[in-house]
């Protein structure tokens, strides 16, 4: 059974051939590319620091180095491009880079409404 936010079997079949570190590639072969990808997704989804990576996903320092190498090489862009090409994709994230706010909503009306901690309330 696939855990929440991990790559499904169908998704893994699509990206398995494009990720580096598989048998036949130049350089070192990754021990388990799928486990590594799932670990990266865990970090990204949870917002945790790399050193909080659960041991089931491998050594955090190794995973972080590998994540950085893949990012520099453009591997993540390829992976997400393949996964997003599926019209039935269930794992789509929306971030603030595509959300627009009306220009007048950028500043609040009437100043600060919250009271600072430790500051006595004005009479």
N-to-C SSE string, H for helix and E for strand? HHHH
Q: Major sheet, described briefly?
A: none
Output the number of helix runs: 4
Helix content: 25-40%
Reconstruct the topology from this structure:
Blueprint: H1 9-15, H2 33-46, H3 60-73, H4 75-84
What can you see in these coordinates?
This protein has 123 residues and is an all-alpha fold. The protein contains 4 helices and no strands. 10% of the residues are buried. The model has no long low-confidence stretch (mean pLDDT 77).
How is this structure best summarized?
This protein has 123 residues and is mainly alpha-helical.
Key descriptive features of the protein:
single chain; mainly alpha; 4 helices; 0% strand
